[in-house]
Amino acid sequence: MREITYAEAIREALRQEMQRDPRVFLMGEDIGVYGGAFGVTLGLLEEFGSERVRDTPISEGVIAGAAAGAALAGMRPVAEIMFMDFTTLAMEQIVNQAAKTRFMFGGKAQVPMVLRTPAGSGTGAAAQHSQSLEAWFVHAPGLKVVMPSTPYDAKGLLISSIRDNNPVIFVEHKLLYRTTGPVPEEPYTIPLGVADVKREGVDITIIATSIMVTRALAAAETLAKEGIEVEVVDPRTLKPYDDETVNRSVKKTGRVLIVHEAYKTNGFGAEIAARITEGETFFHLVAPVKRLAGLDIPIPYNRTLERHAVPQEEDIVRAARELMAYK
Amino acid sequence: MVDISREKLLDMLEKMYTIRYFEQKADELFGRGKIHGTMHLSVGQEATAVGSIAPLRPNDYIASTHRGHGHCIAKGADVRRMMAEFLGKETGYCRGRGGSMHIADVEAGNLGATGVVGGGIPTAVGAALASKLAGDDKVTICFFGDGAANLGIFHEGLNLAAIWQLPVVFVCENNQYGMSMPVQKSMPVKDVAERAASYAMPGVVVDGNDVLQVYEAVSEAVQRAREGKGPSLIECKTYRWKGHSKSDQERYRTREEVEAWKKKDPIARFQKWLLEKGIATEEEIEAISARARQIIEDAVAFAETSPEPSPDTIMEGVYAE
Questions:
Q1: Nearest C-alpha of chain A: how many angstroms from B61?
Q2: What is the ipTM, given to two decimal places?
Q3: Average pLDDT over residues A202-226
Q4: Lower CB density within 10 Å: C or N end of chain A?
Q5: Which string of DSSP letters, residue by residue, matches B222-273?
Q6: Which residue of B has its CA nearest to A165?
Q7: In chain B, what residues touch A70 (CB-CB under 8 Å)?
Q8: Which residue in B179, B119, B111, B110 sits closest to B146, CA to CA?
Q9: Which residues contact residue B136 at a Cβ distance below 8 angstroms, ignoring those fewer than 6 apart?
């Protein structure tokens, strides 16, 4: 199978869905001629024209809100917020309008929109362009939250998100855009709410999201040399969340390491840990559930500090070894 | 002389009466403990809702506000289902999930009311965008109050609608207060409509208690929008007779001020015009008023005998299939 980048996979999903369904259109800052801040939408303006690839002013609130309104009126918009940090400017529209519309209108309306946004640190962009805020959105009933870690997942999950009849927050990682992987040319879907076991193992279950999947897989190779077989589970969608796949893995290994880039306090890892320990899976644990997450600080600019602010491969290796001390 | 058929004029009067009686009844039911929560009554503002929506076609859109009962009725909502929603019943527009502030009927073009001031502005802009992209000639009316005009989202919304020439009419119901904050203190400009200049769209001030003035101004704006000439901002100067919501002690205004505005009652004024022009007789007007009262009585009976939603269904409607 051919290999393409994560950014190309997203672009291909957008292109194929726009070709398939005339109701799908794109809007966001600099997505047209500029091709998006990360080049994701390059070429789509030429192919689909400025009616369907709509450059907007710097107005995050109305980008999100107009997407919700257009969705309510029968379209299937894919809006882009240039950095996840800027969703703060659109929060009212996302959380109070898009997320609640269906329920508060008695289940008789739907808001089939996707809000794509790049998250994550590692680009030296400092505190206001580097956050991972997915936990905020998981906390809002009515939203779905998707975080692909590979080009293959990005394409299939984005197609599913566009076809989904709910508002979906689609979180991309900036450092993943140039990573490559095998992706089928034809359109395909990956159901929302189905986790993927990225690597099989028997000793430790690492539950990782987004770029942490990549780091966990690399750590697993190191650990394998020490005789520690890691299973890496990627939830892929935080909401809906696949308890079943996670629990099956935890019952097999008995040791859990949760890794995400977002702040540890009230991060999604806390939810994963709670879900594992509040059910029968608890009795299969041989060690406390361990979380590895971003420090509770704004992302610093300095390269060394920035690296220290979020989990790295060596942190995962170290945490896994610690977990192996429990017998 | 406005160009509206006699039938339509009388229908407008009936809708104004229906709004007035609906809200008076809602107020009464609240007083009797039949309605919980709160409500935002638009008594005194009936002309803005009816005059704005009368120029629309049935499949055009409206986006409403927390003070939105009038908009719903003017858009043709079933008053029985509205009253049922008030009482939190399963037969209500939102199955009792929304209450007074969230009545919606998307299929009938009512994109719903939002309890967040200004929150519906992007919704309306988005619906107008959908119409433009779909190539239909639907128009969206976006209602909001004077308070919303000081929010960032107001400016974002008007700007986007203007640069994209979207078929939306922004109708500001300036009822003089954002809760207790008078417009004179909350804006450095005299009229919200002045702000239209920043977005190169027409900005028109009308007497919001004159249903015909509202109708004419909005008709022109709707026509412009339908012809692809873009958005307009119509500011209707009006007044709410009741407090902001049920908890309002009205410390910020005088009884004299309220009484002065009551003398400008939009219903009495419209009626007087209808009589003077010989369009309706006293008897006909009385019959219209009586019919509106009856509609409300029927609605209350329907709502009171409707079932409560079952807790078994509480999770329904969060997500679409």
A1: 9
A2: 0.94
A3: 98
A4: C
A5: HHHHHTT---EEEEEE---SS-SSTT---TTS-HHHHHHHHTT-HHHHHHHH
A6: B320
A7: 126-127, 129-130, 133
A8: B179
A9: none
